[in-house]
Specification:
Blueprint (H helix, E strand, L loop, with lengths): L2 H24 L12 H23 L3 H28 L10 H32 L3 H29 L4
Helix pairs in contact: 1-4, 2-3, 2-5, 4-5
Amino acid sequence: MTKKNKYGIWIKIISVVIPLVVAILFRVKIDYDLPIFLPPIYATINAITALLLVFALIAIKRKKIAIHQRLMQSCIVLSLLFLVMYIAYHMTTDPTKFDGEGSIKTLYLFILISHIVLSVALIPLVLISYVRAFQKEFPEHKKISKITFPIWLYVAVTGVIVYIMIAPYY
């Protein structure tokens, strides 16, 4: 099995397992009061991720490869931290209902649904982008990253927007 095939199999497995595990864990309820209120923290993580993504793009356009690499690795770590906190919050807290009405509710649902769908689609894109850079397949990395970057930025920014829109209902 070639390295490319080995990574490809792992990317497929991880891309399926993460959303399945998240969906399963959302059905698990733990009677535990978290010592801190997580939504503003993970919204802040999303905001920082969005900023770091933009800085990483600027760095690579300026040929600052090491800075770009560190920023992108930081984005991956922040995204994983967000995911852990998001799951922990939803396992220990009842869902918050958005009580807005009319066009604001339609807008909220559009942003929320697109955020969720694209966050799932983002998993293999980030993994493929990372593996291609790791394997020094830079033309392929650049090609997939042109798709990954705007989706990741959208997911990070809409995560903040969703939090701001639902915050009054917590």
